[in-house]
Amino acid sequence: MWKNIEINIQNIEYDTGKATLIKMPNKSNYAGYKFWHPSKLIRYGSNSYARSLGYTDDFTFKLKKYGKGKYNSHDIIDEIDISAEEFEEAFECMESCTRAKSDETYLHITEPEKIEKDVKVKEELKNESNKR
Q: What is the rounded average pLDDT of the residues 104-128?
């Protein structure tokens, strides 16, 4: 059975057209790891900064950690395979930032009360054209 999980667009690092490089969330146990996912399984999410990622329970995600230096940025330092269940647990921390806000509003607009008062303008504040 196919499942979808929403990720933040900021976690997408690179898209080749056939595959997309996605960073794991910083608040997960897999911070610093990345994985490639087929681009045809990535769709627009519920809002402009969310993407929906398709997968099944049989998926095995191959997480890779790349070097951070100038010369080893393309070298794989570490590699881990995780199941779909572990993948879902890692992305639980992103649910609040990818879900669209509800339509409920807390702004209450009230009409201000009209003040009935005579206004007198001082002579020194009037324009020259108004004095004539």
A: 81
Using CA atoms, how far apart are residues 33 and 85, in angstroms rounded to an integer?
A: 17
How far apart (Å, rounded) are the C-alpha atoms in residues 52 and 95?
A: 12
Q: Could you write out the DSSP letters of every residue in the chain?
A: -EEEEEEEGGGEEEE-SSEEEEEPPTTSTTTT-EEEEEGGGEEE-SSTTEEEEEEETT-EEEEEEE--SSSSTTSEEEEEEEEHHHHHHHTGGGHHHHSPPPS-------PPPPP-------GGGS-HHHH-
Q: Is the pTM of this model over 0.90?
A: no
Place of tokens 């993948």: 87
Q: How far apart are CA 115 and CA 54, in angstroms?
A: 61
Q: How far is the C-alpha of 59 from the C-alpha of 66, rounded, in Å?
A: 22
